[in-house]
UniProtKB/TrEMBL annotation:
Protein's name according to its UniProt entry: Valine--tRNA ligase
Oligomeric form and interacting partners: Monomer.
Annotated Valyl-tRNA synthetase tRNA-binding arm domain residues: 810-874
Described function: Catalyzes the attachment of valine to tRNA(Val). As ValRS can inadvertently accommodate and process structurally similar amino acids such as threonine, to avoid such errors, it has a 'posttransfer' editing activity that hydrolyzes mischarged Thr-tRNA(Val) in a tRNA-dependent manner.
Motif 'HIGH' region: positions: 60-70
Reaction equation(s) it catalyzes: tRNA(Val) + L-valine + ATP = L-valyl-tRNA(Val) + AMP + diphosphate
Coiled coil: 808-870
A Pfam family matched in the record: tRNA-synt_1
EC number(s) given by UniProt: 6.1.1.9
InterPro entries registered for this protein in UniProt: aa-tRNA-synth_I_CS, aa-tRNA-synth_Ia, Anticodon_Ia_Val, M/V/L/I-tRNA-synth_anticd-bd, Rossmann-like_a/b/a_fold, tRNA-bd_arm, tRNAsynth_Ia_anticodon-bd, Val-tRNA_synth_C_sf
Methionyl/Valyl/Leucyl/Isoleucyl-tRNA synthetase anticodon-binding domain segment(s): 616-758
Length: 876
RNA sequence: GGGUACAUAGCUCAGUGGUAGAGCGCCGCCCUUACAAGGCGGAUGUCGGCGGUUCGAACCCGUCUGUACCCACCA
């Protein structure tokens, strides 16, 4: 369809026939988004009187592009903020991006490599300039994708972690932490990536089980010898001791003595240390303080020298035959040399053990002794834990809190310095006489000969930790900070609970005088494929959300994601499901089209209940229940249940029943038709508004056409009017059951759906007389005389449908069906009778349960009577 | 080694004590004048195994098996 994409209607039910019979997302999505932005709907006013509702975007890496995980997260955030906006809050969805230190630097370095140059050739300043240029050129990818998705973010407030203001925030907090003694410099064993050439923090290390080889090596000679085992043989060059457990009888005689270290001319002491597990291996451990975190600690306890034998590239520096070899080459060379000396006591054997890899490039991490900057996290983490413990911050779903506590309660100090060029440079200067000066944002750095600035930059997460307030202008005391801090909710994946969430908590509480950065943390899961498998490029199941948005529309992608979003649980998504969501959008489209063709309207007040048919009252009663239900689900971040409830209400109840039943009313005309037109308008109006946060585009297009309103984006959020009509609901339940039963009967008899059948419809004492015309229409029943062939199974007491099947009835099939029904009813009767004969049950079960069982028994009895009668009437 | 989840229809998942549900898929009949991206009807499960508590268990308790993820300085 290419026609009919003109601007939205300028009045209620204008030109309904203009709507094409199929919804084409591409025709409306782009233009609607641009209109929303032009009209400033997404902008936030910090001076507004309205209550604030603020959510920050988890800033995507500038290097990145939108993947389904983003699409998912954005759908949830967008839905939350759109609803709050409709509810009359001053909403801020804060957009922005993260400079992603290592990732971005790696990316640009790869480009340079292709050009045959390197960052070292360029020099620091030129390189950083180059990264900025790269950011300017390709950093906008995500913004474009966010527009496609419909993200209602405040574009004028877009921020970047390296912006001047945010850098000032970083500097401010660094200075403050430093002066408070919470940032310090120390030489320790850190995780070193020999490819990225930088330190990385503990949580940037990904452990996986790798196949290694455990070799056993004899140290020393004769009685003065023992055997140690290792998977990193090359580190023996840096051994400065062997450790055994203090209580280990086997080695007691050796403690305090020195033994010869093979391949070297050194001898090393045997020390006793409780860290050694005497049960493991030989019970003797080689100690390499400069290349292993445990050994570092042992070395500290025993005053051992720290002998560095590898450089930053993990190349051996120890003088001798191994010098210049890479760690892996050195490993086999060392083992070979040891074997020649007869030092290998057990052949090397395969050994699976946990090995750390750089989370950015997957290179095996090398523990390395070096001087770095650290954050003393204990006091900060304590506060972060307490804020959740005492309920000031709620984690949703609450099962996730245990993970959070596990981390904040057992935290090691955080290594924040990175040996990179792209990032916030550490604001510390070193003087000629060993002075160290931390320079705050309003201070001049020291000048003069010999003063140099620290060459390292800060961990990316240092600046992300300030995101909830740095984006609002902090450290200035801006109105935005006052209005939107703390944020209302943080919506993010459980996978960055530690990387990001916990650190925002620590820094937020610290910087903002103990006020945590948000009231609620709503954690979602990871997007997976339709079989629940992790999406990854290497596995070949990764999907570009743009492909699906192109094919099925953004609404379809959003709705599918929302529909799978159970709190904290991973979300599978498959193309078939997106297609189904597209079908839903199309269904809404066509239902609205039908409504417009039939004169549905939102003008004027709703007619009085007395004027309405039971069908009208039923649908309005259900509508209001659904409004209440939707509110409860939104408030509880239950997107899957929310989507499901709206889907089924709209499709099953409104489209399949109310719309179908109303056809008869419309055809008859008169006042009842007028009333139904207004009711149908109301139902669609409210339903579209309820759905808008999830599927903004199609609802906007339809709602503006239906109501003539400016935009559903700024329409009022529906309120439960309190209208309920239990009697009408029961009545329509009966109608629906009855119609379904007759349809089943017809299908069983092989009647074609469209085939008209002479029939009498005797609704007896059911009180459903008013529905007879509609039911006859739905069932394709023609008026009939005396003819009688069979009766349908009737779930509503007192109703009889006599269908004249003109001799075409299949008596055998009917007998079979009735017999089956009879058996089921008899089983039901037996079950309920047994239950009601159970004294213990009657004594202990609540009244409503007992009553329910009674009703079931009565129904079973009635069924048996009726079916028996019908069976008797069937010709043999 | 510690921790947290999870095992329900072919697939992906809801369902926290009272007759087993949804979407997709599947079978059958229909282009019934909003929609075939649709309509109507239908089939499909000893709710992982074994015990226990209870009048009653998918649900609570114990245990076993299997899976996923997180944390941890196991040479």
């Amino acid at each position: 369809m290419t026609e009919n994409t003109q601007p939205p209607a300028n009045g209620p039910h204008s030109a309904p026939a203009d709507l094409p019979t199929q919804y084409t997302p591409a025709d409306v999505e782009g233009k609607l988004y641009e209109r929303w932005v032009e009209r400033g709907y997404f902008e936030a006013d910090e001076k507004s009187e309205k209550d604030p509702y603020a959510i920050v975007i988890p800033p995507p890496n500038v290097t990145g592009s939108l993947h389904l995980g983003h699409a998912f997260e954005h759908t949830l955030i967008d839905a939350l903020t759109r609803r709050k906006r409709m509810q009359g809050y001053e909403t801020l969805w804060q957009p922005g991006m993260d400079h992603a230190g290592i990732a971005t630097q790696n990316r640009v370095e790869r480009e340079l490599a292709k050009e045959g140059t390197s960052r070292h050739d360029l020099g620091r300043e030129a390189f950083v300039e180059r990264v900025w240029r790269w950011k300017a050129e390709s950093g906008g990818t995500i913004s474009g994708q966010m527009r496609r998705l419909g993200d209602g973010v405040a574009w004028s407030r877009e921020r970047f972690t390296m912006d001047e203001g945010l850098s000032r925030a970083v500097n401010t907090i660094f200075k403050r932490l430093h002066d408070d003694g919470l940032i310090y410099r120390a030489e320790r064993i850190i995780n070193w990536c020999p490819r990225c050439l930088t330190a990385i923090s503990d949580i940037e290390v990904e452990y996986q089980d790798d196949d290694g080889e455990l070799v056993s090596i004899r140290y020393g000679d004769g009685e003065d010898s023992l055997v140690v085992a290792t998977t990193r043989a090359e580190t023996m060059l840096g051994d400065t001791a062997v450790a055994v457990h203090p209580d280990d009888e086997r080695y007691r005689h050796l403690v305090g003595r020195r033994i010869d270290l093979p391949l070297t001319d050194r001898s090393i002491p045997v020390v006793a240390d409780a860290h050694v597990d005497p049960e493991f291996g030989t019970g003797a451990v080689k100690v390499t303080p400069a290349h292993d975190p445990n050994d570092f600690e042992i070395g500290r306890r025993h005053g051992l020298p720290q002998l560095t034998v590898m450089d930053e590239h993990a190349v051996i520096t120890a003088p001798g035959p191994f010098q210049g070899l890479d760690r892996l080459e050195a490993r086999s060379a060392v083992v070979g040399a040891l074997r020649e000396e007869g030092r290998i006591v057990a052949e090397k054997r395969p050994y699976q053990h946990s090995v750390g890899h750089c989370s950015r490039c997957h290179t095996t991490v090398e523990p390395r002794l070096s001087m770095q900057w650290w954050v003393r996290v204990a006091p900060l983490a304590k506060a972060a834990g307490d804020a959740v413990r005492d309920g000031r911050v709620a984690i949703h779903p609450k099962e996730m809190s245990s993970r959070y506590f596990e981390w904040v309660d057992n935290l090691h100090d955080w290594c924040i310095s990175r040996q990179l060029w792209w990032g916030h440079r550490i604001p510390v200067w070193y003087g000629p006489d060993g002075e160290v000066r931390c320079v705050g944002p309003d201070e001049e750095p020291p000048t003069g000969p010999g003063w140099t600035q620290d060459t390292d930059v800060l961990d990316t997460w240092f600046s992300s930790a300030l995101w909830p307030f740095s984006t609002l202008g902090w450290p200035e005391r801006t109105d935005s900070v006052a209005k939107f801090y703390p944020n209302s909710v943080l919506v993010t994946g459980y996978d960055i609970l530690f990387f990001w969430v916990a650190r925002m908590m620590m820094f937020g509480l610290y910087a903002m005088d103990g006020v945590p950065p948000f009231h609620t943390i709503a954690l979602h899961g990871m997007v997976r494929d339709q079989f629940g498998k992790k999406m990854s490029k290497s596995f070949g199941n990764a999907v570009d959300p743009l492909d699906w948005m192109d094919a099925y529309g953004s609404d379809a992608v959003r709705f599918t994601l929302a529909r799978g979003a159970n709190p904290g649980v991973d979300v599978p998504i498959g193309e078939d499901w997106v297609q189904a969501s597209r079908n839903f959008a199309n269904k809404i489209w066509n239902a609205t089209r039908f409504a417009l063709l039939n004169g549905a309207t939102v003008e004027g007040p709703l007619p009085a209940a007395e004027e309405m048919s039971a069908t009208d009252r039923w649908v309005l009663s259900r509508l209001n229940s659904v409004v209440a239900e939707a509110d409860a689900y939104y408030d509880d971040y239950q997107f899957a249940k929310l989507s499901d409830a709206l889907f089924h209400f709209a499709w099953d109840e409104v489209f399949d029943w109310y719309v179908e039943l109303s056809k008869t009313t419309f055809a008859a005309g008169g006042r009842p038709a007028e009333v139904s037109r207004r009711v149908l308008g109301e139902v669609l109006d409210v339903t579209l508004r309820l759905l808008h946060p999830l599927i903004p585009f199609v609802t906007e297009e339809l709602w503006t056409t239906l109501t003539g309103g400016d935009s559903v984006v700024v329409a009022d959020w529906p309120k439960d009017s309190g209208f309920r009509d239990a009697a009408a609901e029961r009545e329509l339940d009966a109608v629906r059951q009855l119609v379904t039963e007759v349809r089943r009967f017809r299908a069983d008899q092989g009647l074609q759906p469209g085939q008209r059948v002479p029939a009498t419809l005797d609704l007896g004492e059911t009180g459903l007389a008013a529905h007879e015309p509609a039911m006859r229409a739905l069932l394709r029943l023609e008026p009939a005389g005396e003819a009688f062939s069979a009766t349908a199974t009737l779930p509503v007491a007192g109703a009889v449908v006599a269908l004249d099947l003109s001799g075409a009835i299949d008596f055998a099939a009917e007998r079979k069906r009735l017999t089956k029904d009879l058996a089921a009813a008899e089983k039901e009767l037996a079950q309920t009778t047994a239950k009601l004969g159970n004294e213990a049950f009657l004594a202990k079960a609540p009244d409503h349960v007992v009553a329910k069982i009674r009703t079931r028994r009565e129904a079973a009895e009635a069924d048996i009577a009726r079916i028996t009668e019908q069976l008797a009437k069937l010709p043999a």
